[in-house]
């Protein structure tokens, strides 16, 4: 790595660590930003790097969220009693129970999400193009429908997460630290993976899956593994967001196709599909814009979101980094694999 | 020595179209064998049958003595039987060198291999093959930006990178700049002689195939019409008829 | 005993109930057939999977309710909604869809996905999130000793759907535009060489699909309920039907649609209505997996 690179990474690290202290009022927003970065990055693994458009990755976000919730509560109480609207008020957690439960939840979430991705991947990753896209669209929504119909986890009225034992300001910092660690870990893990033969295989599948098979690439294994990796981090993101949000609502929070589910697609495309930094840039630009202007749209935000997707797909399909790379090929040149 | 590739009575139909009817060919290790025939005579179909793109309706295909007609493309490729496409297929959004690295044999090596970086030797080999086909200066260029002929050369290099034992080339000189054809023929011969790759080549350019192959099979209307040395084929009136009567 | 078991046993005690459940489903299925046929049309002619299909249906329903509020009689709202969505379809083509025809399926998927979000949220913004319906005030028939009720509106909707479908087939077979559409579907380049203005054909196709959705939506509003976000389920239903029945065969489309309607209603009754949506999605995945597994045996993939 060049000195400039080190300097850049150092500055970013410093900024990451300092941000919640510099802007304490925005700590929760900043934590959200890291969640968004994670969502965009994990979408891009399939959508950008592998060329498989998933409209239902939100499934793993939701699964992680519920898995964590069930474990966090289930370790100490009866979940059904806890979610029962009649008697939930009396069940509380000591600080020790809270942190223990959270740790276990953060372990269970990625495991559950990864297992789901392995199972669904084996089932539907033989589908391509629109078939895969629509199948995932269905899966994502089905997740919300099932959760909403499942009384054990509170059904449609949702799941109230255990309350953070510390004071309010510390809560924001705590979740900022969790979310930032997740975002950074996701970035690092994906960058590591993309730099291996695995990354070459992903790109080969994107460009011509049949050709890849004719060369002997283990496409089935790579595809399922890629979705599992993406689900692993999505599951963690779900677990952290569930706790940050406090209330898990099946259709609007956990399996929230109309918000997070769409945002992750949009952010990845906006920043530049199939690039390492594109999803990060896209997430930052989108999240900041969203927070700045969302309130002025007075309820029309989600309409604007639809317009935004259409406009970006039609007029800005390469995204910010894709365009930058085309304008200034030297500065933003494609990772020349093997150039080391 | 027994044959490396042995096709016995392979048949393939598409609905009512009989694309291959009981075709038998055999290729010995180390040979360069030609496959000719007018357009639509079933040459590409035969390649597809051998490479496992589709299953044959009847007959048998053995590679190195083992039956492969029921195996899948990936598994056939792992045995060292690689093919190129008439329409040319490369990884268009990847750089040339990445195309070669993606064709490395290490991908057959399980999960640890997938999680490793391409080795130094592998990268050196990729550069060698780029040089071999004359694309060294296009190393970092995105493959989709190459001309059609250059993509054909790249696809040839990718196939060699895979260390095939048998390489099926579907019209390798089609679309190649005529001034480069001699160079490409030379590369095919060297691949055969120096790398020990056995070649089965579909070719439309008669001058090329007569020069390259020591044995040639000729298909017409999905059936095997003739087989022999270039001289035999050239002298065979049925072959001439097939080509003249084709259009 | 769990509720699903009791519900199943109910059918044994009162077989007429089963008739009722299946009949209701079948009557609704006819409308699925319309949406699916439109989707197949756009898919076959323009090579676009129209993810916004369901939202067009729902929009048709809201427009019908609006027209009815303006004093239009219920059944006149059907042609009115169709006309409005014909126009909208044309506008959508001219504004957005023409840019994605002939491009990678990836692009058209994302673009129509964006349109679906746009329209669903627009509906939500304009008419609110409440569940709506349109009362055609036709009453019902009672059959089988007055145990089974048949809503006249549903029968009328079925008839309307069949008439529409038949009209569409006749139109595609005999009219000039219809033949141009079919020629474009078979081979756009050849059609262009023969003087067909394919751009115009695409616009017309997309607009006609809009009209079909508009009519379907008006009918749905009359016999069922709609809400702004119900569109996605219609897209999924249409997609599932098309995959099952193929792109060209109306009879198969109708059969698959009626079957889906009946199955969905049956499951909704046995497991509870809250599982009906989940059932549709699961069924879609099952159909996709089944079809692709079958193709995989002959080394093919769904395309
Ligand atoms: N996948 C396919 N589906 C239907 N027909 C095919 C298919 N592949 C080849 N054919 C038909 O089989 C015959 C032989 O084609 P092909 O093997 O491509 O000939 P060649 O390579 O000798 O020009 C042609 O009539 C062609 O139309
Ligand atoms: Mg051919």
Description of the molecule:
The complex is a heterotrimer of chains A (340), B (247) and C (303). Chain A is an all-alpha fold and 340 residues long. Chain A is built from 15 helices and 2 strands. A two-stranded antiparallel sheet of chain A has the order 1-2. The radius of gyration of chain A is 20 Å and the shape is globular. The relative contact order of chain A is 0.17. With 247 residues, chain B is α/β, with parallel strands linked by helices. Chain B has a single domain, classed as Rossmann fold (3-Layer(aba) Sandwich), CATH 3.40.50. Chain B contains 10 helices and 10 strands. The model of chain B has no long low-confidence stretch (mean pLDDT 92). Chain C is mainly α and 303 residues long. Chain C has a single domain (21-302), classed as ABC transporter involved in vitamin B12 uptake, BtuC (Orthogonal Bundle). Helix content of chain C is 75%, strand content 3%. Chain C contains 12 helices and 2 strands; from the N terminus they run αααααββααααααα. In chain C, strands 1-2 form a two-stranded antiparallel ribbon. Chains in contact: A-B, A-C, B-C. Adenosine-5'-diphosphate binds at residues 14, 17, 19, 37, 39-45 of chain B.
In short:
The complex is a heterotrimer of chains A (340), B (247) and C (303). Chain A contains 15 helices and 2 strands. Chain A is mainly alpha-helical.
How big a fraction of the residues of chain B is strand? Answer: 25-35%
The termini of chain B sit apart by 40 Å
Counted beta strands of chain B: 10
Largest β sheet strand count, sense and barrel closure of chain C: 2 strands, antiparallel
Elements of chain B, N to C (H/E): EEEHEEHEHHHHEHEHEEHH
Averaging pLDDT over every residue of chain C, what do you get?
Answer: 88
Which ligands does the model contain, each kind named once? adenosine-5'-diphosphate, magnesium ion
Tally of contiguous helical segments of chain B: 10
Q: What structural category do the secondary elements of chain C indicate? A: mainly alpha
What is the helix tally of chain C? 12
Which fold does the CATH topology of chain C refer to?
ABC transporter involved in vitamin B12 uptake, BtuC
- Described by the principal axes of the CA atoms, the overall outline of chain C is globular
